[in-house]
From TrEMBL:
One of its GO terms (molecular function) is protein-disulfide reductase activity. Pfam families: DsbB (PF02600). It is a multi-pass membrane protein. The keyword Phosphoprotein does not apply. This is Disulfide bond formation protein B. It comes from Bordetella ansorpii. InterPro entries: DiS_bond_form_DsbB/BdbC (IPR003752), DsbB-like_sf (IPR023380).
Length: 182
């Protein structure tokens, strides 16, 4: 039994909205880095990489239609990102640890990152339940203009984030990292 009428179309809409939020998060981290200059910590860069991989799974859902394989990409990369963010949060709890004061709405960046990865995991699990009828069948409909714009925004966010990291760190290791900023 299918719980939602036209789940494949709704999945594309849900994945498009999730991809839009993910792209906004990537752009926000890039803007924060421009406003507050200094090298990012290695865990922060790894979390951004996990976010990009989760975005690729959502992008595949938007472009090719819902698939358990695409959702598993989102879940696995989000689990890795959540583990990195949780490690960073726990490192800040250690007495005497150098802690960044960078906050957004009263929460530090790793806390926001952990919440975002958890939200991606829950979204993907919910969509796996709703989209179970579709299996690995790609929908034959072309992607509409809003979907193309969201995919382009994600691509622009990824490329600008990569360019920012290369400009900041070069092709080698980054200089002395900040302690906890995302």
């Amino acid at each position: 039994m299918l719980f939602v009428h036209n789940a494949g179309g709704r999945s594309r809409l849900g994945s498009s909205l999730a991809l839009l939020l993910l792209s906004c998060a990537l752009i926000l981290t890039l803007a924060w880095q421009v406003i507050h200059p200094g090298p990012s910590c290695p865990l922060c860069l790894l979390q951004r990489g996990a976010l990009v991989l989760a975005g690729m799974g959502l992008l595949l859902n938007v472009r090719l239609g819902p698939s358990p394989m695409h959702y598993s990409m989102v879940i696995l990369s989000s689990l890795a990102g959540f583990a990195l963010a949780a490690q960073q949060v726990l490192m800040q709890v250690v007495p005497g640890a150098a802690v960044s004061t960078d906050t957004l709405l009263g929460l530090r960046w790793p806390t926001w990152s952990a919440a975002g990865f958890l939200a991606l995991i829950l979204f993907s699990l919910l969509m796996l339940i709703v989209d179970r009828k579709w299996g690995d069948n790609a929908l034959k409909r072309p992607v509409g203009l809003p979907g193309m714009i969201i995919m382009g925004l994600f691509l622009a966010a990824v490329l600008s984030g990569m360019a920012g990291a290369v400009l900041q760190c070069g092709v080698g290791a980054c200089p002395a990292p900040r302690t906890a900023g995302f």
